[in-house]
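Example complex used in Figure S2.
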Amino acid sequence: MKIDIENINKAFENRIRLGIMSVLMVNDKIDFNTMKELLNLTDGNLASHITGLEKQCYINVSKQFVGKKPNTTFEATPEGKLAFKTHLNALEKLIKG
Amino acid sequence: MKIDIENINKAFENRIRLGIMSVLMVNDKIDFNTMKELLNLTDGNLASHITGLEKQCYINVSKQFVGKKPNTTFEATPEGKLAFKTHLNALEKLIKG
DNA sequence: ATTTTTAACTTTGCATTACAAAGTACTTTT
DNA sequence: AAAAGTACTTTGTAATGCAAAGTTAAAAAT
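Predicted assembly (194 residues):
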């Protein structure tokens, strides 16, 4: 009865990144400020977690103008979605002994 | 659609502590070395996470002799079980958007 | 009797992480 | 011109994670 702790992805251990990914599994695209409010974060904190996930290629960040305001949006990559699902499976297995 | 990230307990964020608690939800008591092997940890690493969980009163640690060997066992406190369940509920909610 | 092993830590040292707060740059609204 | 919004980056500090080595004490082996 050895326990599978390897498939628990370090990138998703943190609750903020867990939150970000959860949001991005349900919402195709979401912008900076919406995410910030959903998760109740400071700008800097969100930005840094986003950078982390982007570096691992789990999300894509794109910038455009909406009306005349700059707008940054996030979306999960296929790779990110897969990794997150794997993570959730590992979590589930772990919890169910 | 604000997201509940507060009920995600920081004490259980780490995968090792998550593993420890999962094991202790299923197994009433478990000893140091069994836990160590289950989770594939070094002595020091297990000891430090155990100390963390004990300080929060989520687990109890007891020592006795089995045969003639010292034996340390862990068990989750009622408080710990409740906190862990709350954590899992928060996780589930989060994941299901 | 002395060495080795087992159990369970504690300490050390280093690298990483988390996060608030302040600062930056550029734009737009007032 | 001043204030506010968007999206960062930088700074500073504290906490975390973890392997590896060291410690203590009892037990088993030689």
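Chain A has a mean pLDDT of 93. The radius of gyration of chain A is 15 Å.
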